[in-house]
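Notes from hallway chat w/ T.B., transcribed later so I don't forget. T.B. wanted the structure written out for a chain they're using in a teaching module, and asked if we could keep both sequence and structure tokens in one place. Agreed to drop them here.
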Amino acid sequence: MTRSKVTARVGQCRAQSLRNIMEVRNMFELNCAGGTVKFKFEDGPYPITQADKLKNAPGVYVIWCRSSSRDTRGTLIDVGQSDNVRDRVMSHDRKDCWSKHCRQESLEVAATYIKDEQQRLNLEKQIREQCQPPCGER
């Protein structure tokens, strides 16, 4: 095998490893009413105090509570969808409910961006039905 082919293969392996790391990084295990459920989100997790890192884009967001920084799972507190995820989370009317169910420093947020409103509504409904979060519509 020529040197250029070896270099190309190493580059492909590195790219695949990076994709695998990103997949694991963005896969969240959430404690839900029905057990543990895995969801994949493309942005986050961020502490709720850093919600300004989210994009001004349409999508679905989840708010959850981690019991400690070493906790790899969290308990889902809320889920929602919006035309502008960052603005919605930062000015949310259910922040009091989030605080009631979790200390501020343990709240985290993640989002996935979906332009189609019906797809967003379907994903929000699926997560809400599976996890039955304490905040939000049922």
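Follow-up for T.B.: The domain at 27-131 is CATH 3.40.1440.10 (GIY-YIG endonuclease). Might be a good example for the class.
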